[in-house]
Design brief:
Blueprint lengths: L1 H11 L2 H16 L2 E4 L5 E3 H7 L10 H7 L5 H23 L1 H9 L1 H34 L8 H10 L5 H29 L3 H29 L4 H5 L1 H5 L5 H28 L4
Antiparallel strand pairs: 1-2
Helix pairs in contact: 1-7, 2-5, 2-7, 4-7, 5-7, 5-9, 5-10, 6-7, 7-9, 7-13, 9-10, 9-13
C-alpha cells in the first residue's frame, strides 16, 4: 500500500506539475488584498510591493501580509492547481491503457487507495510549497513582524492562539498543507467518473464555488443563531486554523470521511468499468 501511495505521489509531483502548483499559489497570494487606503480603495499585495507602503504599521509587516495572502482568487482556483498533476496523469493513463497493467499488479482497492491518497498528499505539498515561497518573499520585502512593539504583536498572536511568530508560521504552514489536501477533493472527486479533459478542468471550479456558497450560507445562519454549527465543520478555512478547538478536529474527521468515500466510489467505478482503456 505504501509503495502504491509513493508511486502515485511521485507521478503527481512531476516537476512541471509541482512548479505549476507552487508558482500558481504564489501568484494568487500576491493578488490578494493587502490593505485599504484612506479613501477605502484596496491594494493588492503585489501593488504594495511595487509601489511601496506609505507608513510602517504591523498590518504592513511581512508576517501579517503572509497571513492575508490566503484569500481572493486563491480560494477559487487552488483546487485546479493542486490536482492538475493528478488529473493529467490519470487522463494519460486512461488514454494509453496503462491502468490495466497497474491494476493487475496492485489490485483494485490498493490502486484506488494509492491513487486518491497520493493525489491528495501531492496537492497539500504543492500548495504548502507555494505558500512557503510567498512567505519568504514577504519576509524579504516587508518589515519584520518582530520589529514592532510587543502590544501590536500581541494582538495578532492572540488571534492565532500562539506564543510567538514562529508558532504562527508553523501552524499556518501545517494548516495550509491540510487546506491543500481538502480542496484537492474537488478535482479528485470529479476524476473518479469524468473522462472528458475539458470537463475535468471546468468542474472543480464549479463544485468548489457551489460548495463554498452552501457552506457560507450555513455559516451565516449559524452566526445569526449565535452558534457556528455545521458551517464551521464543513468550512475549508477551519482546517487551516490549526488548534485544539473541537470544530477543527471535527473538520479533519469530515475531510477524512470524504476521502474514504472517494476511495470507495473510485473502487466501485473500477469494478463497474473494468480496466480503463
Amino acid at each position: 500500500m505504501i509503495r502504491c501511495i509513493r508511486t502515485e505521489f511521485k507521478k503527481c509531483m512531476y516537476f512541471p506539475f509541482f512548479l505549476l502548483a507552487a508558482l500558481g499559489t504564489l501568484a494568487l497570494c500576491l493578488a490578494a488584498i493587502g490593505e485599504y487606503d484612506y479613501t477605502g480603495k484596496s491594494r493588492t499585495i503585489l501593488e504594495m510591493m511595487v509601489r511601496g507602503v506609505d507608513g510602517q504599521t504591523v498590518d504592513q509587516s511581512g508576517l501579517v501580509l503572509w497571513l492575508n495572502g490566503c484569500s481572493g482568487w486563491l480560494t477559487l482556483i487552488l483546487p485546479l492547481l493542486t490536482t492538475f498533476g493528478y488529473l493529467a496523469t490519470l487522463s494519460s493513463e486512461r488514454q494509453s491503457g496503462e491502468t490495466g497493467a497497474v491494476l493487475l499488479r496492485a489490485g483494485n482497492l490498493r490502486y484506488c487507495m494509492g491513487k486518491v491518497t497520493g493525489g491528495a498528499l501531492a496537492g497539500g505539498v504543492g500548495a504548502a510549497a507555494g505558500y512557503g515561497l510567498f512567505g519568504l518573499l514577504m519576509a524579504a520585502v516587508f518589515p519584520a513582524f518582530s520589529g514592532f512593539p510587543p502590544e501590536e504583536q500581541g494582538f495578532y498572536l492572540e488571534i492565532y492562539g500562539a506564543s510567538s511568530s514562529a508558532v504562527v508560521i508553523v501552524k499556518r504552514l501545517l494548516g495550509f498543507f491540510l487546506y491543500g489536501i481538502f480542496v484537492s477533493f474537488f478535482g479528485i472527486g470529479v476524476a473518479v467518473a469524468v473522462r472528458d479533459r475539458y470537463m475535468l478542468l471546468c468542474l472543480p471550479f464549479l463544485m468548489n464555488y457551489v460548495y463554498t456558497q452552501v457552506v457560507n450560507k450555513l455559516l451565516w445562519g449559524g452566526s445569526m443563531d449565535g452558534a457556528p454549527g455545521l458551517g464551521q465543520i464543513f468550512s475549508m478555512d477551519t482546517v487551516m486554523d490549526v488548534s485544539a478547538d473541537l470544530y477543527w478536529g471535527m473538520s479533519l474527521v469530515f475531510m477524512a470521511v470524504v476521502y474514504v468515500a472517494l476511495v470507495f466510489l473510485f473502487w466501485l467505478e473500477v469494478k463497474r468499468r473494468g480496466y480503463y482503456g
